[in-house]
Design brief:
The chain is mostly helical. The chain has one domain. The chain is built from three helices and no strands. Helix 1 (4-21) packs across helix 3 (46-59). The radius of gyration is 12 Å and the shape is globular.
Length: 65
């Protein structure tokens, strides 16, 4: 059985990706974010997390680790 935290994690991840996607993006950045959104797991790897943080800071998204 999934905990509430495990259920909320994918929703928070999608929200972060959506915030960055709502700005004008380069094609490679857009493709990377689309691939993150299609992941079939409830977490990001350390590298994925770092890349999303960089994109959030670069494109003005709110950073929420």
């Amino acid at each position: 059985m999934q905990s509430l935290r495990d259920v909320q994690r994918p929703a928070a991840m999608r929200l972060r990706i959506t915030r960055v996607c709502s700005t004008g993006l380069e094609e490679s950045v857009q493709r990377f974010l689309e691939s993150l959104g299609k992941l079939n797991r409830a977490y990001l790897t350390a590298v994925e997390e770092k890349l999303l943080n960089v994109l959030e800071s670069e494109y003005g998204g709110e950073i929420t680790p």
